[in-house]
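Input chain follows. Return structure tokens only.
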Amino acid sequence: MVRPALRSLSGGAALLLAMLIAALAAVVAIAVAAEQQRWFSDVANRRDQVQAQALALAGVQWSRQIMQDDARAGTIDHLGEPWAFPLPRTPLENGSIEGGIEDAQGRLNINNLATDDALGKEERARLGRLFVLRGIAPAALDAIAASLTPPSASGGASGADAARTAQTLAESLRPVRAAELAAMPGVAPRDVVQMLPFVVALPTATVLNVNTASPDVLAAAIPGLSADALATLVAERARKPFATLADLRARLPGGGAIPDETTLGTGSSYFLVSVRARQGETLAQARALLRRDGREWPIVVWQTLE
């Protein structure tokens, strides 16, 4: 015969066990629901990310079409053309897109420093004047030039072989993007921040487009201009872009001097593209450098997607 106390104890244990099982089942159900919700969220975020990236890349392709259409309009590139106006933030279903195109040859090409000719010497002089204007340490220019200079060829190679070796070394030292200046020995990060809006790294030697250069770059390219003369030149350019360098010379305010007209131009081949796309809470940004050769479909020199 089971005593009443034992029956009461056994019943209490069974009730406690049932309560524990019910609590465990509730915890498992909550965990499963939370994991399922997280999975749905991850899928939605990934979907938005893919769509945002696709939109950003589509923006780059759209820019290529714009630049090809512009080539058909003529060889002069200036800030009054359709490509130069930024695309404002445009709403899309569950997102938006915005972007812009910039003439890369409106900046100073640091890779011009690798050439030991009139263009290389003039680019160094321009950069020197720009560094003074922007308060950048002059030693930074020497450091950049040194980083772009290959070591002397050795090993008894013939003249032709030595020249090819030197050219290969020089090309390997050239940065692909201006941000790589930060990795050059002797170039301070604060100086790089000051340089970036005004310099670019292009794969070939390039002239400066006087129709698209910023006022600071113009001041560096045309020394002797006072602040008022520079403002007059920029306003005159906006009124009517320079068709030729002779046109620039004829309309140049007093005090300004063009050191070497062969290093300037009124048209461009390289353009920087930046596109930002948003889907839901996800943001994607594509950047690219385009090279336009005549009326051919522009080539993507490099492209990044973040």
